[in-house]
Amino acid sequence: MVLNYIWISFFCIAFVIATIKLCFFGDTEVFPAIMDSTFDTAKTAFEISLGLTGVLSLWLGIMKIGERGGLINALARVLSPVMTKLFPDIPKNHPVFGNMFMNISANMLGLDNAATPLGLKTMEGLQQLNSQKDTATNPMIMFLVLNTSGLTIVPVSILVYRAQMGAAQPTDVFLPILLATFAATLGGIVITSVYQKINLFNRTLILTLGGACLAVAALVWGFSRLDRETMDTVAANFANVLLLLIVMLFIISGLRKRINAYDAFVEGAKEGFQTAVRIIPYLVAMLVAIGVFRASGALDWLVEGLRSMFESFGVAAEWVGALPTALMKPLSGSGARGMMVDTMTNYGADSFVGRLSCIFQGSTDTTFYILAVYFGAVGVTKTRHAVVCGLLADLVGIVAAIFICYLFFAD
User: Fold this and answer.
1) What CA–CA distance (Å, rounded) separates 26 from 108?
2) Where is 33: in which H helix or E strand?
3) Which of 82, 216, 334, 363 is most buried as measured by Cβ atoms within 10 A of its Cβ?
4) Three-state secondary-structure class, residue 226
């Protein structure tokens, strides 16, 4: 229901803004631009779904080998003590914990193409436990908030963009991104736990979250001791080497159990194709609405309004120049990427605003895209508090990014 209101709001706001621009400013290009956007984004949505078909087929095929080989169940048993505290509605040692961990790990390594099929597989498992098939469960919402908060350890693509834009040291945003995305994820867990009345003050979760904080601190310390070339090499290769290792572990688990790995892969790949087709309508609906909102100029008006408001209160507003990336990120990953590149082009890759736009890009994930695709794949229409928790986690990431950028890069 919340997605329905948001979807309608995008169109209504876009129409009002476009009408004002036409009637009061004589902008005769705004309505053609909006209509062009509807066709372009519908085409983009289909192309994304088409591109996902191969990726989904590949990874769901690999996952099927892992299921039959027992690797997913083994992983679920290892993670169960922690995950049952954070997802109390899921039975202990349930295989969905293994899929969930694989998805979160892929996100942490910046492997979006691998994370999406693993996430869809997790949602299918959670839907099997759902007694009301059209309504999001607490575990679904917690899982999606963990996805939308976008915890990323190796932001390879952002570092590559910075290098292409001529940054003197492309990796100088690595540590700020890691801290901002960790803040968003931790904030998302706390916010969702409050909604779902999950007790975070128990020994298991305190040790786990505390250990995660120590791990992040260790990564920050380790990478801070590397020179730029070494950091680039490690960031570019670590995720891919680990990904190939995971694939080999799945295949070896199948060989160990003497299963027909080829037949298992084909069966899983068929599920991937069906899933890709199923998400097309949801993806088209959301991306078209976002495209219309953007083409109307509503986003530009919002940014300038915020800039004027903060300046009127005497608050430093240089960070507002990077805000389009932050506002676009929950709506569209490619749109936010475009905003980031545009910001670095206009302000400079090594400017405060240019760096902040990169930190915004890495601090959170595409909330509405994830909710539309993941809920759409399993037929959930009543999202309950998923949108609110996801956007609040994004807000935590945005605020953290601003403070961290001032800490690292303010003159």
Assistant:
1) 47
2) helix 30-69
3) 363
4) coil
Q: What percent of the chain has pLDDT over 90?
A: 22
Selected residue with higher pLDDT from 274 and 153: 274
Beta bridge partners of 18: none
Average pLDDT over residues 316-327: 81
Q: Is 87 in a helix, a strand, or coil?
A: coil
Amino acid of residue 245: L
- Is the pLDDT at 1 greater than 60? The verdict is no
DSSP type of residue 320: G
Nearest CA-CA partner of 254 in 72, 55, 33, 57: 72
DSSP characters over 213-282? HHHHHHHHHHHHTS-HHHHHHHHHHHHHHHHHHHHHHHHHHHHHTT--HHHHHHHHHHHHHHHHHHTHHH
> pLDDT grade, residue 34 (50/70/90)?
very high
Residue pair 48/332 in contact (Cβ under 8 Å)? The answer is no
What is the C-alpha separation between 237 and 243, in angstroms, rounded? 10
What is this structure's pTM? 0.78
Taking CA 151 as the corner, what is the angle to CA 201 and CA 372, rounded to the nearest 5 degrees? 100
Contact indicator for 392, 213 with CB cutoff of 8 Å: no
Cβ contacts of 315 within 8 Å, gap of 6 or more:
none
Average pLDDT over residues 199-205: 84
- The two structure tokens encoding residue 220: 């920050």
Residues 190/200, Cβ–Cβ less than 8 Å = yes
User: How does DSSP classify residue 173?
Assistant: G
Burial 183-210 (b: 16+ CB within 10 A, else e): bbbbbbbebbbebbebeeeeeebeebbe
- Contact 38/46 with Cβ under 8 angstroms? no
Radius of gyration of the chain, Cα coordinates, nearest whole angstrom:
22
- Tallying the residues shown for the chain, one arrives at 411
